[in-house]
Amino acid sequence: MKKILVLATGGTIVSTLQQNGLAPGLSLEQLSYYFKESHHSDAQISFQVLMNKDSTNMQPEDWLHIARTIYENRHQYDSFIITHGTDTMAYTAAGLSYLLSGIDKTIVITGSQVPISFRKTDAKKNIEDALTFAEHAELSGVYVVFDGKAILGTRAIKMRTKSYDAFNSINFPYIAAISQGRLDILYRPETETINFENKMNLCPNVFLVKAFPGLSPQFFDFIKKNAKGLIIESFGNGGLPFEKRNLVTYVYDLVHSGIPVVITTQCLEEGQNMSIYEVGKKVGEAGGITAGDMNTEAIVAKLMWILGTTNDLSEVKRRLQTPIAHDLNYI
User: Fold this and answer.
1) Fewer beta carbons within 10 Å, N or C terminal of the chain?
2) Domain Asparaginase/glutaminase C-terminal: where (predicted)?
3) Catalytic residue IDs
4) Which structural domain range is residue 229 located in?
């Protein structure tokens, strides 16, 4: 008999209509009722409320709270299900993938686009699918289960604000298809070996900026004084302007001030290759760290996790470019 611990954190799934709009409002007893209603197996399910937040209010410190709770209960349970809001679910999934890297447990994050108490809701299906995956997948690591699909925690991105199929798997195969209690494994990730010590620490002092025509270099002066790390969503294959508003010189300045600058792309699919164009090569020569085909949510969480352990630029680069939880196929 599998033992599953459900950790409630809030989100749309438990929201009710309140004075200022939808906000988390269902009790643990009400949520557990819906789980028991969707439960068609011999698994033993326990419940715990960790927080009751709209996921917009979810912070890196909350990732740590969830991760530590799972770690402390790892010997008592076979699998874990986290009910969570959809807006920052991908960030939490990535954060937990690093904080709990190497743990030999199935960790499922799910939620809904429509509250579970509403007549037309996707929550009941997602709960049933999450239970099916948690009980039968026999896969360790973190997964987002939503709309009949299981997605690796470091590869999930919310693509839609209203539709039930809110999440896509980016640059990685879907892990499983789930329907009416049936689980079909589509891709079984290979086991990874991490060649550095895992720490359950985070440094949230990371900034993310999306490059756009006209971005003022003065922004980088602020970063130099206030940040421990910077992520830039560049154009295309990793390019930044070096004419007129020369951002490349500011990348160089930040790196030589000891601040890692990670370069990703605004394009969701296929990643980046900074060696193709002059505008990308110059960024690389300035010290920008290419993130290959990682998605932004994973980069944010991974950089916070790395900086929680080390500020050494060469080590930050090595760890960022080391595949963890299959977040990276190439650099």
Assistant:
1) N
2) 205-318
3) 12
4) 206-320
